[in-house]
Amino acid sequence: MAFPASFKATLIVFQATHPLLIEDMKICCIGAGYVGGPTMAMIAKQCPDIDVHVVDLNQSRIDAWNSNQLPIYEPGLDDVVQAARGRNLTFSTQVDQAITEADVIFISVNTPTKTFGIGAGRAANLEFIEKCARQIARNATGHKIVVEKSTLPVRTAKAVKRILASESSNATFDVLSNPEFLAEGTAIDDLLDPDRVLIGGESPEAIEALCSVYANWIPRDRILTTNLWSSELSKLTANAFLAQRVSSINAISALCEATGADVDEVARAIGTDSRIGPKFLKASVGFGGSCFQKDILNLVYLCEHFGLRDVAKYWEQVVVMNDYQKRRFSEDMVKTMFNTVSDKKIGIWGFAFKKDTNDTRESAAIYICRDLLRERARLCIYDPRVPEQQMRDDLIYACTDMNGHLSKSDEWLIENNVTVVDDCYEASDDAHAVAILTEWDEFKTLDFDKVYEKMHRPSFLFDGRNLLDQEKLSQIGFEIHAIGKAHHRPKFD
Ligand code: UDX
Ligand code: UDX
């Protein structure tokens, strides 16, 4: 039944004069991924009076959230989920029901880069966001606060509002933007003690309702409120600035290698300037993760859309530099190993995009492995958290062109020249080289005499994370190539 316009107006007045009380609040979150899952688990743990229902289309993901084997690896997450699951935290695929029952609905579905049509390779694919908005509208009654948790192009809230208003005649809506700044691997600490929480919106009542949730454990002065567009844009901007710092130090790492400067020393020297600060200055084989590249490309697309070509070009360079860094690493490996890695075994240590996560999205390891495979190397990969099938799927994806075509030779190489092992030492046995692509702590304490003993000579070690003590390793006999450092040849070479 459709309610008349006068009813809607009454509802809005009622809402304004009857603010949502936290003890009556029900939250639903659509999307049980790396962001939705941990964020909702933390809200449920910290706010025992609020019912939190996380829903997802993917049944197996939901089954995993309901089991002892959570679908994502994140230090500390198990304890947070266990504290609230079955009390005020539920995971299910009952999307319609969860929407109907909730007062506040978070949208936390993925927004990947478009691979087709207008804006392919740059714009965000908003298909899932639009579908969510329509589903919310169809199932909502009364008044709902809809919260954009997913990272979105600035002004998406306008579209969400229009869809909600035009598809629903039984409900009224406020739309808020509340981007998540957690980083994988430290998500629980980031959620528990964030630098800030950002809430953008138009309705003071809706903003206050969401503030009151976070205020259960976060000091009020760390909850920032802005208008909708500033909030949406701040998330893209934060990620662009962070990625820019990594690309900046990586650019300098190339210059260090050419000149004999040491990138870690340069980073320390500039990082002690309080205006620059020490964080995000670790040179690496290249940044990965689901956000940095996608969000910058999205920013570039937006700038182009608004006719800001020079601004677009400026930000695009951050991604160009990252691609250069990854390519430079694999090319240096081939060049160093006498210009051929064909039929040589190379041990790959680490496949995740950073330590303490099983996430491989846009991991530099995928592209390094692809390049080495195409040089006909035999790869033996070890990662403590990433399952073999995920690695193979990632390599297939990286070798597939824009038209969805995977060449027979790439397919053959992935099938025959990739071995995945669950022991780090096995990856380096009989290898000509080892490449460290993720900074897992366990790599620091390996028995390197044992590793060296079983490798071919010269024994090359390519440290894509500047994790190891080069001096010590070159004394054992390794030839070390690290990022932004002079190459360390063995002491007796
Ligand atoms: C998040 C953010 O939401 C995204 O905008 C940001 O840029 C990256 O981080 P993330 O949680 O990492 O995404 O994504 P993912 O782990 O892929 O989880 C999204 C979930 O949404 C998946 O489990 C997927 O099954 C679910 N989904 C997707 C739905 O339930 N419904 C849909 O219509 C689409
Ligand atoms: C990032 C943002 O930090 C977070 O605020 C946002 O919500 C999501 O995107 P995430 O991608 O999970 O988080 O991890 P982050 O720690 O930012 O690392 C991203 C990539 O940059 C990783 O591949 C990491 O190894 C790399 N990196 C980071 C460096 O190479 N050097 C650094 O100094 C820092």
Number of helices: 19
Helix content: 40-55%
* Biggest sheet character: 6 strands, parallel
Give the DSSP E fraction (strand runs of 2 or more residues).
5-15%
Gross morphology is: elongated
Bound molecules: uridine-5'-diphosphate-xylopyranose
Summarize the structure.
With 493 residues, the chain is α/β, with parallel strands linked by helices. The protein has helices at residues 5-17, 36-46, 59-65, 77-84, 95-101, 127-139, 156-167, 187-192, 204-214, 228-259, 263-271, 292-305, 309-336, 364-374, 388-399, 408-416, 424-428, 448-453, 470-476, and strands at residues 26-30, 51-55, 89-92, 104-107, 142-148, 171-177, 197-200, 223-226, 345-349, 378-382, 418-420, 433-436, 460-463, 479-482. The protein starts with a helix and ends in an 11-residue tail after the last strand.
Task: Give your account of this protein's structure.
The protein has 493 residues and is α/β, with parallel strands linked by helices. 45% of the residues lie in helices and 13% in strands. It is built from 19 helices and 14 strands. Helix 5 packs across helix 6, helix 12 runs antiparallel to helix 13 and helix 15 packs antiparallel against helix 16. The mean pLDDT is 94. The structure holds uridine-5'-diphosphate-xylopyranose (UDX) (2 copies).
